[in-house]
Structure formats: C-alpha cells, structure tokens
Amino acid sequence: MFAVFKTGGKQYRVAAEDVLKVAKLKGEPGEIVEFGEVLVVGGDSVTLGAPTVAGATVAAEVLDQARGPKIIAFKKRRRKNSRRKRGFREEFTLIRITEILTDGKKANKTVQPRPKRAPAPAAEAGTEAAETAAAAEGATTTKRKAPAKKAGKPKAKAPAAKAKPKGKPKK
Q1: How many Cα atoms occupy the beta-carbon half-sphere of 25 within 13 Å?
Q2: Model-level pTM?
Q3: Which terminal Cβ of the chain has fewer Cβ within 10 Å, N or C?
Q4: pLDDT of residue 109
Q5: How many domains does the chain have?
Q6: Is residue 171 a part of any domain in this protein?
Q7: What is the pLDDT of residues 37-89, one digit of tens each?
Q8: Is residue 155 part of a domain?
Q9: Element (H or E) spanning 114, and its range?
Q10: CB 107 within 8 A of CB 32
Q11: Is there a domain that residue 144 lies in?
Q12: Residue-range definition of the domain harbouring residue 59
C-alpha cells in the first residue's frame, strides 16, 4: 500500500517503513506525527482525492531534527568593488512512515518495534553448483582489470635541429 501526501509545500509518495526528509515539523525524536493532507491512497485499488482523500492519514515517527548542508549565496558585481556572501542551512525533520490509515482510523501514539528482516533464503541447488563451478575456474566478480592500451599509429619523429658551430661567428 502506498500514499501521496503533502507537507511543507511538497508532495511525497511513501509506503510503510520509508524514511524521508521533510521540511521542519514540530515534534521531538520518538514522537508520532500525522499528515492529514493525503492526495492519493493506492494498493489493490487506487483512491484519488478531490483534493484530498476523506478519512485518510499517514502516521510517521520523528527520527531526528537536523540541518542540511551549508549553501553559500555569493554575488559579485565586477568592477564595482561590490560583493555579498551569505550562508544558509535548511532545517529538516527525518521521519519514518509507520502506517497509512484509511476510513478515519486513528494512529497509534506509541512507537511500535520495527519488524526484523528475515535472513535471505538459501540458494537453490542449481545455482549453488554454478557458483562453485565459477569459483573453481577462478572467475572473480569483485575486481576488474584495467583495459589494455590500444596500439595506435607510431608517432613521427621531429626533424633534427641543425647543429650550430661552436666558437665565434665569422664575419
């Protein structure tokens, strides 16, 4: 299931467990915030809002309040001895989407523990045999060799400079 919601003048397409940066919101790390301006809710069937989907909300956990990289605005007017330098760091909130709610349901105000990822399933017997055969041949996939140099035309030698006589020049 996915949703498109609007906050801070921007729209975001999200699914559960997505982590994203949004414009600064009120809230301490660990709190749950809700976004009510949901424009689209998708899944098995897509519900478009006009302009918003009635009864739909997106709940998210605040992970961090931080500031972005410094942006320098430097302006110079040549030959006028005039220049201006300003720095700016935009504040943002890092959030993790916890759930997408429809039909007027309310979000849990407590943070749910994140589900653990299951380890990758064991490879099939056919692919294991292929991997062992490739390893036996000495094929490596991690390192690449540098491409060989192409044989080009031999460069022409520069003409030899005329030798100057040593000593005093003759008159």
Answers
A1: 23
A2: 0.61
A3: C
A4: 79
A5: 1
A6: no
A7: 999 999 889 999 899 999 999 999 999 999 999 999 999 999 999 999 999 99
A8: no
A9: none
A10: yes
A11: no
A12: 2-101
